[in-house]
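Researcher: Structure for this, please.
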Amino acid sequence: MTREEKKCKVKGCKRPYRAKGYCSTHYKSWRRGELPKKRFSWCIKPECKNKAVYGKVCADHYKGIKKKAGDNATAQQA
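Model: Predicted structure, token format:
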């Protein structure tokens, strides 16, 4: 089966294949993380839609965790 003969793997979509099994429209949605099978994992904090980069949290939440840990360490030393 040639590339032109393949169809998008989203149910009901009949557009031709582009990449990762999706047509151009659905491939862009996949890249933005809008499809059920996401491109990367998301931050585990509620309501956060950022990419997880440090374990299971995004960079913003990681900074907050790191800052809290630093504050606790400083308070314990005093």
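Researcher: Any notable elements?
Model: DSSP finds two helices and no strands in the chain. The chain has two domains: 1-39, 40-78.
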